[in-house]
Amino acid sequence: MALKTLSKEETHAMRKRLIGQSCRLFYSDNPVKIVRARGQYLFDEEGTRYLDCISNVHHVGHCHPRITEAAAAQMDLLNTNTRFLHDNIVLYANRLASTLPRQLCVFYFVNSGSEANDLALRLAQQYTGNEDVVVLDHAYHGHLKSLIDISPYKFRKLTGQKEWVHVAPLPDTYRGLYREDHPDPGQAYADTVRDLIEEVHEKGRKISAFFVESLPSVGGQIILPRGYSPKVAEYVRSAGGVFVADEVQTGFGRLGRHFWAFEQQGEDFCPDIVTMGKPMGNGHPLACVATTEEIAKAFTDNGVEYFNTFGGNPVSCAIGLALLDVMEKEDLRGNATRVGTHLKMLFRKLQSRHHVIGDVRGVGLFLGVELVTDREKKTPATKTADLLVKRLKEKRICVSTDGPWENVIKFKPPMCFSVDDADLVVSCIDGILTDLEQNCPDLEKDNIGRD
Ligand SMILES: Cc1ncc(COP(=O)(O)O)c(C=O)c1O
């Protein structure tokens, strides 16, 4: 039976009436109604095609037929919970294990990045017997209460910082405490964590975990400086804590050469816990925590069952397995490297033509373009970023912004994004920025003097 089709206006009116208004829409002035999608393209109710540069969730492409087939076939056969033996969960865990360092060999399947990070917090606290957590400034680790507490990006706007949460500086070498000209920013930023841990100890408190995105995305697509994570892990472990790598946005080959973004910190670096989510199920709710035998044993030894009704069910795991197959078959990591390198090179060229582009950074198909009004002072060009996003929508290109001032244009499209798509995006941005320079020179006037 076909579902009733609503006009766009009816959908919008019902959405306003029935759905909590804190669940925001993209382009809230004039939202887009998407009715179908394929690959890197979204189609609205009139059949207009939009290029999706936002969705790192629809990792191998929207509605990939191989994923749909795997889901439908398993759905037709069996879907149950993990209290029965089933091949899919063990085969999938085994495939994930082959992508990770040997030590990370125990898996818990859950339904969202938030559930994964909440479980990581429980694992860390149970294993260490400590409570306190160190996080990076501007970080976001999920929407559960436990995670709002460890997400400065959220708690600063809400109830504030809990006494068991400690915030270390974001290791941003573009505009942070130590910049590109510092001889060893990795060590210098790691030492800020060491100092913070000392302060925590002076208060008579103890660290359970250091949580970090392997490439802080909510903070504005920040590349952790070389040597940072191994040093921090050393400090955190010697304080009795564990290192949690949040790979919810960055995992599954998005960076191209590396399957996991933490691998950028060197072959010998291994976190104690890795959390994953968004791209795992290509849109199906599938997420996971990987950890060591020792940490898992401590969690088991508390004698309390961990039961998750939907996590790791046969349909989810069939989808997860199909996604890994598609990635290999279509060489999507190779594509992320090729197209990502091309896109970054084009952005760098654009930077030489448009003064508003202060920095271009990122790896593979996880890029950020930071807009500033003044390259010396690095004043965030938030209004330009906002207008650029709106103008790109008129060109049928969807992009988003991030960073503390929402002035970093973020690119994390489906991994099938092509060189032609990259060329189109850059030529549209070039045209829009040229137009803004000529016709809206006072756009950022209110921002002058802002840090
Ligand atoms: C880095 C990071 N961790 C965790 C989460 C939470 O994931 P979810 O929305 O699937 O609960 C997000 C979501 O945006 C995220 O960006």
Automatic annotation (TrEMBL):
Keyword Lyase applies: yes
Cellular component terms (Gene Ontology): mitochondrion
Keywords noted in UniProt: Lyase, Pyridoxal phosphate
Cofactor(s) of this protein: pyridoxal 5'-phosphate
Coiled-coil annotated spans: none
SUPFAM superfamilies (UniProt xref): PLP-dependent transferases
GO terms, molecular function: lyase activity; pyridoxal phosphate binding; transaminase activity
Keyword Transit peptide on entry: no
Family per similarity comment: Belongs to the class-III pyridoxal-phosphate-dependent aminotransferase family.
Protein name (Swiss-Prot/TrEMBL): 5-phosphohydroxy-L-lysine phospho-lyase
Species this protein is from: Tetraodon nigroviridis
